[in-house]
Each structure stands twice: as structure tokens, then as C-alpha cells.
Amino acid sequence: MLLKTLSELNGTSGAESLVRTFLQQTIEPFVDIINTDKIGNLIGIKNDSLSGPKVMLAAHMDEVALMIIDITGDGFLKFRPVGGIDARILVSKPVQINNSQVGVIGAKAIHLQKQAERQKALSFDQLYIDIGAKSKEDALSKVKLGDYAYFITKFEPFGDGLYKGKALDHRVGCALLAELLKNDYDFPIVAAFTVQEEVGQRGAKVAAHHLAPNFAIVLEATVANDISEGSDEGWITELGNGPACSLMDSSTLYNAKLIHWVRDVARQNDIPLQFPRGIGSGNDAGSIHISKVGIPTISLSVPCRYIHSFASVISEKDYRACYDLANALLKELPNIFEGSSINFAKEDQF
Amino acid sequence: MDMDLRILEQLTQIFGPSGSEEQVADFISAQIRPYCDEVINDTLGNLIAVRHGTGKKIMVAAHMDEIGLMITHIDKEGFLRFTPLGGVRTSNLVGQRVKFNRGRMGTIGVEKIAKPSDFKLDKLFIDIGAVSQNEAEQIVHLGETAVFVGDFVEVGSRIMAKALDDRIGCFVVIEALKRSKSTNELVFAFTAQEELGTRGAKTAAYVLEPDLAIAVDVTATGDTPKAHPMSVKLGSGVGIKVLDRSLITPPQIKRWMAAVAAEGNIPFQWEVLEYGGTDSGAIHLSRGGVPSGVISIPTRYVHSPAEMVDSRDVQAAVDLLVSLLEHPLE
Amino acid sequence: MNPQMKDARDFLSLISIASGVSGYEFSIASLVRERFEEFSNEVERDKFGNVYALRRGNKNSNKKIMLAAHMDEIGLIVKKIDSRGFIKFTSIGGTDQRTLLSQEVLVHGNQAIPGIIASLSPHQFDKMESSQAVKMDEMVIDVGMPLAKIQEVIQVGDIITIKRQTYPLLNNLIAGKSLDDRAGVVAMKVCLEELSRLKHSHDVVAVATTQEEVGARGAITGAYTLNPDLAVTIDVTHACTPDLKGQVTIDLGKGPTVALGPNIHPAIYRHLVESAHFHRLPIQIEPIPGHSGTDAWPIQVAQAGIPTGLISIPLRYMHTSVETLDIQDVLNSGKLLAYFIASLPDDLEGMLCY
Fold first, then answer.
1. What is the pLDDT of residues B227-254, one digit of tens each?
2. To the nearest whole angstrom, how far is the Cα of C37 from the nearest Cα of chain A?
3. CATH 3.10.129.10 at C3-73+177-342, yes or no
4. C320 interaction partners in chain A (CB closer than 8 Å)
5. According to CATH, what is the number of the domain B68-148?
6. CA–CA distance from B73 to each of A192, B82, B113 (Å)?
7. What is the ipTM of this complex?
8. Does pLDDT of B1 surpass 60?
9. Chain C contacts of B254, Cβ < 8 Å?
10. Which family does it belong to (chain B) (predicted)?
11. Measured between CB atoms, does C128 come within 8 Å of chain A?
12. Is A276 in the same domain as A307?
């Protein structure tokens, strides 16, 4: 299964090669041109010779991870996060370095702590990885400065129609994009599997610039905080209620007409859709929509619990619905274009 | 069968802090003597009743003692300083009335407190209306204990009173003992000094060497506003203990108790208590170990002058105990 | 890795992954029984769940040596299921709440159901400088099922364990959950195995005890039941890590520790140290000024008093789910026990009095 492989592959910002290689092999049969650009984005182009709007589909490949920044005299590894990681989730976990060497992040035994210590979170400065090395030299035989450590989590079905795995929040978009590329559309499609989203949507900025599309759809996962019993205010999205179409996040204010169009297409096709409550963090759309003269962009997300943690959770139904919605939108897309610009004929209805 | 709540009322109002359980023992002894083969008072103050039978030896325990205050100092103006006997909460004390064995009442006052964190037990005192040290010493003596004043009141299906912990347990055992037709060897221990660390139960279990034991005691609930999360609710059935600080109920005992409850259509709820303990904590570690369980009566405001139980839960507890004694674990 | 070490590692791995929270040791007990049978004359389980493996001595001695290592582990338990199907829990045994977030768990309901521990106030990963630990009361377990379905398979009171395999690290180190004190159980098995190659006068009873993590309760009843002439407990002890410099002086890989102090009979301590020196086994000395926090504490005062010794396997990150130890220390513990037992005088002269 595509999503399983993508979830279990390791690749953080600036080190996406395993993911890129796998995706390259996966999409090769379905695109006309395939290449990797100067920053590492994997680009697939389909129907380049056709006229009509050029549509960019974007999903980022990188996940959050830990970078080894120092090795102590007695062989323990110090690290810093690549992307947003809450240090509190790291305690008492195994991690994998260089796809081979396992290490553990431990903590001082509860017996040796004072009561007050247990109320304080452990910070990155206090944490370290133990690979069983006897000394700095011993550790250096397995690990170099700048290596990355990744979460170890099996991708598996979970509960009632859900999936659990690491990096789902990052790789769901890749899986959706790769699947969409198998379809035929009668306009040019440029697929960008981007790098360095987690450190500032840097890959997408470059890709949007050189691909210069007329329209862009960003595919990803978004926060679902739907676990509190009382009020649902902070939930953002809810698992099982369909894909989310972003209204606004910290890097993009989405075009209202486009959002209405998405809503209508979802209704016409009987696809569940939700709008996020509250403002999420930004994604590749932030770089794309302000590229050059500006690119009309929408962002479709699969709701995901526990993003940026060891075990994130999505609903299979939401994943399917997100695919269906993206596909339906692509099929409808030529109708709202006149030449290379969007024209909403029935504008007064909004 | 209807319970006789008048017996419960009397039980709650008897004076019986840890170490001074004699009056409770006398009252219970009078109640149960006709139903038992032997009734014994042991050295630690336990009341032990035996009903001979042929099957397994089953021990049932409920503690007679209640929490109290012990006088440690009488000052020149006749105010009394005290130390807690058992788990007394300082926040429950100010303005409460207390009562000594010989009937003298007092109220609890507090020194001027500068800030809330200074509110400690040693800032409190008992005023028994004496105007001098000399007068006070005529009425109470050092080491004498007092208990809360807390009337027995029925409010709907609920019952409020002091010392429901654990006179409600004693009541359940008395009722079950009267009703039981079990042919097993039954030993009923009404124990002393539970509130000081299940001391009575420890010696009783050592002497009795039971095959199986059930303690009957109160447990907390999580059904009051912003309570500590806990699934137990007042009125939702008798509690079957899963664990507390003193005992992890063996899985086979849990299954047995739940199966007997289900068989008799007796409403029950699983009880996971994150603090506290019961007599079963001491009993299950006696000698080579005694498989032990606990019947819990959901109780709000435990260790206050107005503890509250629901009479339907009490009925369920009696029904469950009767059934368990008749269908012991193989 | 030699066959004995590989065997020890595989057994440790097997019982580390198994679940056996205090009071619920049934399945771990069967695994232990099965592996002890090979080197024992009799294996029994008492009503408190303790497993006793008897290996008869070569002489018609009436002396009985008790070995004790606990097989239970710390864990979690369902205390409430909320209206949306998320599970509130509390701990059994000493659990640091900071080790729980984002863990995969198994809820042992009608069957083992996978779950994930989440924070009720989800972390703001972009505001990662939160200095407050998330409290256990603010965490829930997500099993990804609607309430009605959960109620069919999970009840209040069901046990929860961390889902964790073991991981080999460099230099014969191994990391995993509940190595405290499954490593001690493995050491007892190594001892029985070694004894099968040695001559020993006395009967040896290796006891895998229950409920140590909630107050050494299995050892209380087990020692009463067995009433041995002499007892040695095998547990784990804190090994030094960068955050414990100056606080802990025991190192991983330098051999088991031999304890001394009020919990320990001085003659047993001396004899353990002498056995180690004679057989050139590395040991570290661990002075303990009071409560040893192990089964040795209640065993010493069981019945009319039992001369007691304690050896401990150095372990990092105790009570986390990535406890780490050196397999060689486990092997050396088992060997030390065997040499100690084999060299005891027939009448236990000097061991039974001061």
C-alpha cells in the first residue's frame, strides 16, 4: 500500500531522497516528463502539449525529525528538532538513526526525581539519545554529526476504519497526489513533491516559480484535535467528517470564490466536506499563492490526529473522500477557466 | 427484604473513634448474637462472630472505627489543641461540632490566618466552653478523643451522617448475616483501627486463617462538580473493587464477584480508587496470602461530618454479600 | 555473541514484550514456568501468583535457598471511559507521567486493543517551549472506535501496557520495557542452568514474585509460604547516565552490584563478594543505608527472620519503556548466584547467625 510505504520511509527536510526515489518509481509510468529540480523537488509533468490551464498539484515529502548536533565524551547523542516537535513527546521512545542504528531517548528514573521535577517538562537540552556506545569514538563509528533520527512506528490499521503511523501528516498528500496522477485529465498537470515544507515552505516557493502554473491545489493533512469531551471549539477538524478545505491559515487567505466552488463541487458529488474551525499553521500554499503575479490556490487536507508525533491517525474514509474531491475538482476545472484565467460565470450566486 | 435503617441510624451515632470501638462492638454484638455460634472480642478490639458450616472458610470484614481528633494540649484559657486520628482533612474542620465520649460537645475554631497557605491543623483548636485550664481538665483529659457531630438524615434515596465510613459496612454485614443461608464456614470480623492502617484486620486474619475474604467499606465517587475523574457514581450500584493503594483484586475474585452480581441482577460498578485502602489490603497479605475482594459502597464527602450514600447502593451491597456467601469461589 | 548470551537475550526479549502488570501476572507466569521447567524438579504457582521452581540439592540437605526476582511490571489501568469514547487512566506502580505522551499502548479488554496516548490539550508544536509537563489526568487513550463499540470490548478496570518491542543497541546492550525485573528472572534461569553443571548441596527454589511494584506483596506471602533458610533477591539498580553524574556511581557493563547495609546479612554479602573474586566475575559494591526498595526488604523479616542478600543488575532509565541494560551483566548475575550457591557449606555455618 502506497501510504504504508510512504509513512514508514524516513526523510526529513533537506534529506528527502528515500521518499523522492520511491515516488519517482511510483509515478514514472503515469507522467510524460520527470525530473528533480535544483532544490530537490520531484517534478512530474503530464499533458504538457495540451492547451488549457496548467494545474499544479503540490504535496510535501519532508517529515519532522531530530538532527544529531553533538556527541558527548561518553558516547551519548545530543539533538535538535528539524521542524516543529514538542520535546515532551520524545521521552521514553526508541528512534532510528541512518535507517539502521536504533537508539533510545530515556529519562532519569522516577525514583531519583524530586516531586517538583515530574511537573516540569524535559527540554531538548536535557534529552539525549543512547545507542549503547561506550565512548565518543565508539559512537562515531555509527553516527556522524548532522545525521537524523526518526520516529519508529509501524503503519497499521487502527480502531474502526482508521490508520495509524508516523509522518501521516506529511505523506498523506504525497500518496493522494501519486494516486491522482494515474487518472487522465485533458489539460496540463504539473506535480510537485516538494522539499523543506517543515522549515518554511521553501521547496514550494522554488517549484511554483519555475513551473508557473495557472492554478494550484495543495494536498496535505491538517490538525484534528477532536478529542476533548466538552467543547468542540479547539478541534480545528474532526476525523471522519471528510476532507477539510482551508479558509485561512497563518500563511494564506484563500480566495472566497474558489472556496465556494469547492463547496459546490463537493455537494454535487455527494462528498463530505468540512471547513477548519480556527486558524491552522501554514503549508505550501503560502509560498505558491504569492509566486510571481499570484496563483489561485486551494488547499485540501485530510484530518489527522496527533500530527508531528510518533503515531498520527487518519480515517480511511476521509482519505478516500479527499481523493474523490480532488478528482472531481480537477474534472470540473476546465469549466471555470477561460483561456488561462479563472472566470466564474455565475458570479452573482456567491 | 427491607433493610432496617433504624439500625444504621443508631450505628452511625455511636461514639467509636479508632482505639475506642467498644460501644460499637457492644451494639453489633447484641444485634448478631442470635444468628451466630460464637461471638468473641479479641485483644485488639475486634469483634469476631463465627457461624459454623461445612464449606470454605470465608472471612467478611467491616471496620467499626471512625476518624477522630485526640487532645494533645489544654491551654491556660481552656482551649484544646489536637492531633488527627486517621485521615482528617483540615479543610473539613473549621466551624464543626465535635463530641467526646462522655457527651461533652465542642466547636472548632481557628487562629487569625495571614494567608491561605498558613491554614494548617496546628492553627485550629477546640472550644468546649471551658473558661480555664482547670475547668477544661475537669471535663476532658489529654489523650481523650472526639468525633464529629453529624446527624443521620434521609434525603430522598440518599442518606447523610457522620461515620458512614464504615458503619455502613458494618450495617451491610449485619443485614447479610441475618439473611444468609450459606452453609459455608463464615467468620465475620468487625475490625478495630482500620483508619490507622488496617491494624485490626491484620491480627484478625492471622488468627482466622480464612480461605477467602471480603471487606465491605466505602469508596469515593467522581460524580460531584469538577470531581477528580472516577467512574463511580452514587446510586449506580454497589462497587466491586479493581484496585486501591492497598490491594489489587485478583482477577478471579473480580470475575467471581461480577458473575454473582450479574446472576442475581444486582447493579454493580467497577471501582478504580487511586488512593486509600481497606481491610482487604491487610487480609490478603496474611500468612501465605488470602484471595480477597472488596464490596464498596459509593460515598460522597468521605471523612466529613456529612458523608452521603444512596440506599439503593446499600441494598445492592447487602444482596451481593448474601449471594457471594452462598456461591463462594471454587 | 555466544549461545548462552543469545539464549539469555532471546528469553529476556520474549518476557519483556509480554504483559504482566502487578496483580495480572498470569500470562507472564506461564512463560516463566515453561522456561524454568527444563532446569527444575518441580514448578508450582501459589494462590498469590508467585512461581516457584525447585531444583533439588545433591546432598540430602534440609536447607532451602530462596532466589527471588519479580516478574511484574508497572502499567496503567482504565479508570473511566468518557462520553466520546476516550479512555481516562491511572497508573499501577511508579509511573513518570512525562514518559507517556505519544506512546502506543495495548488495552487488555476482551482482547488486546491498540491505542495511542494523547494529550487533552493537544500540543502546539509550533510553540514547543512549553515548560509544564502534561499531567496524567490531562491525557486520554484513543482506540479509534465509537463509544458503543468500545463498551463491548473495554471496561473500567482493564489493564493497559505500553506496546514496545526490544531493541538491540551497541555492545550487547538491549533496550525495552519492563527489563525491571524480567532481567532478574532471566538471571535466575541462568543460575539454574549453571547449577545443572555444578554440584550444590542445598535445595534451591527460584521464585518469580508478583506485585513487587506495588509494595513487594508477592515476596511478603512467598517468603512466608517458603520459609527458606537463606534468600538472595535479584533486582535492577540505577546505572549512571549523563544526567545522574554525582548522584549515581554504578555503571552499566561492569558487573552486577552486591548490596550491603541493614537489609543484607553480612555473611551473605561477604560470601557473594568472595565467590565473585574467586571466579573472576566483575562486581560493583552497592551500599544501601536503609530500605532496598526490593523484595529483599520484606523477605528479611518474614516468619522468624531470613538471612538475606541482594544482587542488582545495572539499568538505565528505570520505569521508562526504554530501560537499557547490558546482557553480560545479566549473565554474570546468574553465574555469580550459581557459584555462590554451589560453594555454600553443607550446614550453612556462619550464614544463619551473626
1. 999 999 999 999 999 999 999 999 999 9
2. 33
3. no
4. 91-92, 106-107, 109
5. 2.40.30.40
6. 83, 7, 21
7. 0.90
8. no
9. 157
10. Belongs to the peptidase M42 family.
11. yes
12. yes
